[in-house]
Amino acid sequence: MTVPGRRSSTFSRLLRHGFTDPSGAERLLDLPELAALREDPVLLDALGATADPDLALRGLVRLAEAQPETERQTFTTTLLSAKPFRDRLLGVLGASEALADHLARHPGDWETLVTYEAVDLHPGIAEFERGLAGATDPVALRVAYRRCLLGIAARDVCGTTDVAQTAAELADLATATLRAALALARAAEPADAAQCRLSVIAMGKCGGHELNYVSDVDVIFVGEPVEGADEAKALQAATRLASHLMRICSETTVEGTIWPVDANLRPEGRNGPLVRTLSSHVAYYQRWAKTWEFQALLKARPVAGDPELGSAYVDALSPMVWQAAERENFVTDVQAMRRRVVENIPAAQVDRELKLGPGGLRDVEFAVQLLQLVHGRSDATLHSGSTLDALAALAAGGYVGRADAAQLDEAYRFLRAMEHRIQLYRLRRTHLVPEGEDDLRRLGRSLGLRTDPVAALNKEWKRHASVVRRLHEKLFYRPLLDAVAQLAPGEIRLSPKAAGQRLEALGYADPAAALRHLEALASGVSRKAAIQRHLLPVLLGWFADSADPDAGLLGFRKVSDALGKTPWYLRLLRDEGAAAENLARVLSAGRLAPDLLLRAPEAVAILGDPEGLKPRGRAHLEQEVLAAVGRADDAEQAVAAARGVRRRELFRTAAADLIDSYGTEDSPRTSDPGALVDRVGEAVTDLNAATIAGALRAAVRAEWGEELPTRFAVIGMGRFGGHELGYGSDADVLFVHEPREGVDEQEAAKAANRVVTEMRRLLQLPTTDPPLLIDADLRPEGRSGPMVRTLASYAAYYRRWSLVWESQALLRAAPMAGDVDLGRRFVELIDPLRYPAEGLGEDAAREIRRLKARMESERLPRGADPTLHAKLGRGGLSDVEWTVQLLQMRHGWAEPGLRTTRTRAALFAAHAAGLIPTEEAQTLDEAWVLATRVRNAVMLVRGRPGDTFPSEPRELAAVGRYLGYAPGHVGELVDDYRRITRRARAVVDELFYGS
Prior knowledge:
Number of strands: 10
Helix content: 55-70%
Distance between the termini: 99 Å
Largest sheet: 5 strands, mixed
Radius of gyration: 38 Å
């Protein structure tokens, strides 16, 4: 009797044995069906050893209740007397609710767990075929399948088999099941069976001998007519047999389903015929197959049907598998496959995804299969469908470091064991780690983690996933470094040929040069070489993820050669997580940023500073430039210092643009391209304005000291005035001056002209820094007019002679350097011209349209594709800007928001004022942003300005990557550009031309 207020001794024992619901367990133990068991201490010990004692006890009660009266005594006696049986049965009941359900429906099946002959410890296909032999219909086949599964699960949970053996047994059981299902289909349709030979080729995990408890079984069907039969009719018969086989395995009956049979890996996928002849398969793979289809064939294995036909299939296609790495698009296909896997995971599930998430099973499988494809063409020992066997072969051949392979093997086994136990619980196909405490506890205990199983499980899982994440990239690259460094004598390492093959497969166009760079960087026993060997495996992966890995590696060698002796450089890359990845992105994305960096490599420090990539404002830049000018001994030295600041800031801007456009492992690519365009335009404008201010100060100081005899201002025009400069833009300007009191006007004009001449000379001096070209062609009278005018002269000219195009050009005018008050008064002078009272007249509007039409016909370069020219082409920058500027001149007098030099700001203001509908405004903005980014991309990639897409494939691919297009999708970029600009041109035709 239990004393009130005190727990029974049974309750306490149940808690000690791992029950989470001891009260419920007590009630179950008191049931009459367990009367013969409840007092025996071995029962509680055995239940406590299971993954979920409560679940095991509930299953045991159901099984005992289901026993016929005549059998119950035998069952209980066997359970108490036979420890191996007790451990197997309770182990299964504590790990699998689904198999407990099966035993409750088929209470006699417990007997399959009682006696194990030696052969039962590791059964093969023949033993499973015997276990399924009595099944004469799909329902009986399901019952027999589950009966066989009981034995596999028992060996698994009791540790008789390891995870690889369990996966192999599951694949063998699937093979036996496919054979039994085919036999049932043949028996049901003997006429069809007589007409054809049919072979079932297992693919995926079944073909690789590494199946899960619950998984689609991937297959491909090959059919041939029997001698004398019509081929078309034979293929129809084979198709009916194959379809029937799939239904037998896949359909849900009173006994549930076995697993879906998936034939979508066949040629043309679900759109292709279910059954093909061998010659049809061969023809498809020779002509049409993609890289992933050859990767899938790594695991092809004949399992059912005609064995000769199955062998012929493998013999015919296997050579093609090992030639896949030589295909033209192998590298881009592989990169695309890896991205697709990650991108298809729902964001909410990525942290629980055991198979496809970062550091998941697919990372290991993908890496192993890629290395098999690369090196298997010259090494037959790598021809294995099993991930773990292939990994061991790669390590034995020196293609993967032995320590790395051992760590990956351990991690893969742990993750697969997790996957097995998650699926075993309810026999459902899932790769998601459960979230519930009870589920995690059962999962942890099933893997032998008994002390705080939830915390221990999470710790082990994260540890192994972290190992996979860290190693799956290094797996490709570390052996390359071992091959060139040659530090450990006697170690098996990659041959030069194998190293070259691997680099080629990873996207390096010149493997020999890449190996030379690696040898220069990583050879030797110095601390510097040791750090490089630590950094390079990751860097090489980032380079390979770009459009030009060779350029990235070459740039890294040059930067390392320049900075290798400085104490901070390698430490920065090693210790600052973002710095190394940022550097890799910048060096491999094109020519401009690396060229800027190599002129002053110490700027690499910018990449490791969290604040380093943010643009400096104009006030900050101007202060720094003017201070540098003040310290210089002469004008040339002063402007050299100013241009040095400009070069550094150009690098900062380009680096930030590239990193945000590509994205990094820790931060995705920026989703707002308009914000990137605005940031680049503002930053380049600010640094050019500061540089011009520095050149002006230097020119004045050299001849006149602190003050010029005339007030002087530089007015930005075009993209400069609009704060929309790109990396390759000239600075369009006007120069205005006003003699100081008491200064002769001619003397003032001479001084102003000499300042302009000196500024332009200084800014274009040949140095290692990029020149800043100043273009004053938008001045009154163009190239025929004076370079610099007084404010009064501008006023007189604009009053008497100004043409409508000059008023339009003044829409972008903004003071950039020099006398602030003079710049303000110049703006006051031109405002009535660019925003005419009551708006632009119809005659003037007609003249603007005429000029635009003439420009379209005359200024587009000969031979240029008008649909792809970013500046002057259809729907490009010119189209959008002239449309917006016409609205500014017509409505700026009444709408203050339109009085801006910035195109996007004016467009948004026009929309806010109701002058452009929402959809049209968005269309124009999208086209303008895209065209601007194309021009920026061309300059970043080629190192020189351009308005059209590059024709060289690598350069075009790099432009595509900058614009967010994955490898192999450049065609989509060009199509999207044409589509977006075509829609913009339709809006321009309506709003600008009124058509």
